[in-house]
Amino acid sequence: MEFGSEALRRARGYEKEKAAEIPAGEKPDFHMTPPVGWINDPNGFSCYKGEYHLFYQYHPYSTHWGPMHWGHSKTKDFITWEQLPCALAPDEAYDGQGCFSGTALQDGDRHVLIYTSVLEKQDADGNKIVRQTQSVAVGDGVNYEKLPCNPVITADLLPEGSSRVDFRDPKLWKQGDRFYTAVGSLSVDGSGQIALFSADHVDNWRFEKILDRCQNRYGKMWECPDFFSLEGKQVLIVSPQFMRAEGLEFHNGNNVLYMIGDYDEEKLSFVRDQAFQVDYGLDFYAPETLETPDGRRIMVGWLQSWDNYLTPGNQKWSGMMTIPRELHIRDGRLLQLPVRELESYHGKSVKSRAVTVEGGSFVPGRDPLPAKKEPGVEIEGIRGRQFDMTVEVGAGDYERFEIDLAEGHGFRTAVYYEPAAGVLTFDRTYSGCEHDTLCTRSMYVRPQRGKIKLRIVMDRMTVEIFANDGEQAMTCLTYTDSRADKIRFACKGRAECDVEFFELIKRM
Ligand code: FRU
Questions:
Q1: What is the pairing mode between strands 452-459 and 462-467?
Q2: What are 238-251's pLDDT values in tens digits?
Q3: Which run of H or of E encompasses 7?
Q4: β 397-408/386-393 pair status
Q5: pLDDT in tens, 218-238
Q6: Distance in angstroms (rounded) separating the CA atoms of residues 475 and 9
Q7: Which residues, in sequence order, are CB contacts of 344 under 8 Å at separation 6+?
Q8: Does the pLDDT at position 366 exceed 90?
Q9: Is residue 51 a contact partner of residue 68, using CB atoms and an 8 Å limit?
């Protein structure tokens, strides 16, 4: 007999059939994508029996959000992903409106998933009632059974006044023999709080305490908490909704913050420092982390945004995950760099030292359009849409240093640095966007010994920028014509740079 409910079997059949219809070369090759349909948050990112599993918020039947399933993939190296059948469908009375985000861990032989079960019903007066609770499913790496006693945590356990509607995205971990879960919740003051629960078995939870509170300082509801130790400190990552911009910070309404602090495991108390933005790009949300057997903390995020829907109309899939990133702490800040496994996909390389760049740069809307745009500099062998490139720009006499990616046929996606302001900008205005979507985002980058260092990883339509060895990250999509595959360096003024370029190639 086939495993699972009718809804699960339908999703599994549908994704298998439709995935075959997606043209080769349409998706990125080094990022996790769905077989078909819509995805948002990564879920259940965990190591199980020696492989890394990644589930995700998934609506196979359209390229827009809908009743949430958990899609499922696994990998041995974070770069090449194997598609597995859909893991969870909204098929129970308590989760009929969606299996929302959650996490996973290996417990003995079992793979334990905890997720938010969403129920919508009408009360006697016909008013809509929404309830978010936490539920558990246990499986073998392919098939997952929901516990008969679900939901295992309801809002009844929360402190008085906490919302019954906004209570979601449990992060699961084990400390000794006990299970812990940190869940996003909306408190009486209308802003986020993180509720901590513990259990000796995954079906009998008790409320412990409120680990942290937003107190209306950083957005409202705190979604998708992650909580882990790293290099002697404790890190809380949250994805707040409804954030307000401050300077160049927090421009995405749905943003992601990290807070570094100290955690007393006995008293379960967390004292943290200031909050910082995790990624400054237009397309990054709801990351999750895991710890590898060799002790690395790896983070993966959703590479798309709630607010700027760019998916081309003819595409049968929407959304992808970032390249997983290794995390470290340096000088009280979180450092992020692509997993080292990416290097084994490096193909042909080009190294160019002390390249002089002069001319060719202008900012649309800010500079008068030069009568004939000066060409800037192309470097032989540095071209393509799938690469891992590091550019170090030295001190020079310049107003702006620019790298045009995916350039040609009238298109370009610009990344430029203006040293007077110390600001790096991503700009996809001329990438071929046909809708009035947001195209630019900026962040401060501080020069180190007079230089700035940018590592840019591109995989067809993804651009992930890591400044100064991972001090800051900026992740954006650029759906641009696939013929636009040049890389051009330009400068208003004159600058020198060192470039190290690796083509990314698929391994057979
Ligand atoms: C974050 C989020 C989560 C929720 C899920 C629903 O992007 O809103 O809070 O669990 O997406 O798909």
A1: antiparallel
A2: 999 999 999 999 99
A3: helix 6-19
A4: unpaired
A5: 999 999 999 999 999 999 999
A6: 35
A7: 77, 507
A8: no
A9: no
- Report which ligand 1 atom has the smallest distance to the Cα of 239: 1
**Gap between the Cα atoms of 288 and 304, Å rounded:** 15
CA 74 to chain centre: 17
CA-CA distance, 179 to 84, in Å (whole number)?
27
**Beta carbon of 69 within 6 Å of any ligand 1 atom:** no
Residue 185 beta carbon below 6 angstroms from any ligand 1 atom: no
101 C-alpha vs ligand 1 centroid, how far in Å? 6
Beta strands in 125-213 (DSSP E): 128-139, 144-146, 167-175, 178-186, 192-199, 205-213
Q: Which residue blocks in 293-431 are alpha helix, DSSP H?
A: none
Residue type, 457: V
Specify the DSSP class assigned to residue 319: -
Q: Is the CB of 132 under 6 A from ligand 1?
A: no
Q: Is 41 a catalytic residue?
A: yes
Under 8 Å between Cβ of 34 and 28: no
Ligand 1 centroid – CA 36 distance (Å): 19
What is this structure's pTM?
Answer: 0.97
Backbone phi and psi for residue 396, each to the nearest 5 degrees, phi listed first? -155, -175
Residues 6+ apart with CB under 8 A from 283: 303, 304, 305, 308, 475, 476, 477
